[in-house]
Amino acid sequence: MSFVIDLAGRRAFLTGGSRGLGREMALALARAGADIALVARPSDALQATAAEIGALGRRVWTFEADMGLPDEAEAVCRRALAEVGSFEILVNNVGGRRVNVPTETLDLATWQQLFDLNLTSTFICSREIGAAMIAAGKGGRILNVASINGLVAGRGIGGRHYEAAKAAVIQFTRTLAVDWARHGITANAISPGLFATAPNMKWKESNPEIIDGLVADIPMGTMGDPADLGALAVYLASDAARFMTGANLVIDGGQTCQ
Hints:
Elements (H helix, E strand, L loop, with lengths): L10 E5 L4 H12 L3 E6 L3 H12 L4 E5 L5 H15 L4 E4 L15 H29 L3 E6 L15 H20 L4 E8 L5 H9 L1 H9 L11 H10 L10 E4 L7
Parallel strand pairs: 1-2, 1-4, 2-3, 4-5, 5-6, 6-7
Helix pairs in contact: 1-8, 3-4, 4-5, 6-7
């Protein structure tokens, strides 16, 4: 059996799609033939990414929402389903650490807010978009972006809501894989290591010792390029990955091998 990776005729719903890893995955899926619904907070970057996708000859829709707010996350999923229809591909990408606060001084409101961003948004989108996949009866692909910090704790940095939420994303992905396999839906997690995204480059400016220390732990000696994630996303979204489900694929330059 052989497969040609061709996503023509498929629609992808992708959160956090305006920049960084989300942008690169969206562009890679579009190059493979998929039409893309981008979800992000309002910004010029969202419109710029949409324009790049449109220039590839793909249909593109933009939806503005703060996915860290459960009510907004639920509403934007339902709006997209009403305006676009069901999706064959879901990429739960939105997330981030955002604060460097040790556990002993981290307030509950910040913990809950960032847990909602990193975990609850994944649950809500999976429930809403996934239910539509089941109803459509054509199967589907779910890609949940976790982190190597769902497997190992980052050193020299606070904000442990991130480790906790990303570990939960990995396990939630496994439950989706088991529950929805009978519907022809696969669910896999991607756990990136340190990538040269805009937030990480900002961290490097304000906390160079943290980033430099992390890079020193990477056997390949460098941060990943966000474009490196594109090919992996296309593979997982394609028929070539039909028998892969419940996996957590680590892409980190060898950092967690030590």
